[in-house]
């Protein structure tokens, strides 16, 4: 498998996981959404990564910014790894 294909798969995986994190955040707008089968699945996928940001206290009033910061960190990490792999390739 070439490095270019790995970089493509990495970016697509980050896009998909970012979408899952956005869905997780949107589920908080609906009462009982986390108790549904879909909500439990999304929670099971999202919460291990989001738990890394729980101790940062990213709440202002009733609004939590954990998901937004988690998406930014995920995209920065993928971008950095992609650049490193591209420098190896070329």
Automatic annotation (TrEMBL):
Top-level taxon of the source organism: Bacteria
GO cellular component terms attached to this protein's record: membrane
GO BP term, pick one: cell division
Stretches that traverse the bilayer: 7-30, 58-78
Keywords of this entry: Cell cycle, Cell division, Membrane, Transmembrane, Transmembrane helix
Protein name in UniProt: Cell division protein
């Amino acid at each position: 498998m070439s490095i270019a294909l790995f970089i493509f798969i990495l970016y697509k995986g980050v896009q998909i996981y970012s979408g899952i994190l956005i869905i997780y955040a949107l589920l908080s707008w609906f009462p009982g959404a986390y108790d549904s089968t879909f909500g439990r699945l999304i929670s099971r996928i999202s919460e291990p990564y989001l738990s890394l940001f729980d101790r940062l206290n990213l709440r202002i009033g009733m609004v939590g910014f954990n998901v937004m910061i988690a998406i930014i960190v995920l995209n920065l990490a993928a971008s950095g790894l992609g650049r490193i792999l591209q420098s190896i390739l070329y």
